[in-house]
Amino acid sequence: MTTIVGIFDNASDVDKVVERLAAAGFDGTVYDEAIVTEEPGSVDPARPTLAGGSAPEVVLGSNAPNLIPKRDKHSIVRAFKAHLADYHLSDDVIEAYATTFYHSGKFVLVRTDAERAGQVMEILRDSGATRVNRHE
Q: Residue 50 falls within a domain, yes or no?
């Protein structure tokens, strides 16, 4: 199988490419910070989470915003790298993609046979990918 990787700068292009890939009969996997953070098992067990329907406590008179702490960015990147390892990419490629992901890159990965790889690459490019790479 061939893995095609498209890197995008904005979510609207990702949404469009997922629709185009599906219409052409391809299943793409999208990776961005929000998706990796929301996966089962991606929550830091040391960090308390809110029960469904609950909200953070509001402290009146406080100047500090009441924000739910985000998961550590380095933990999110480690989870992303683990996903890339499932695609059997080299360590150098994984590190390069992790750097782009760390700087808010959005990824679409598609596994297909070699004969259809060109079609996937064209769809990714036409949908606004800033980079498209093919891995055998």
A: no
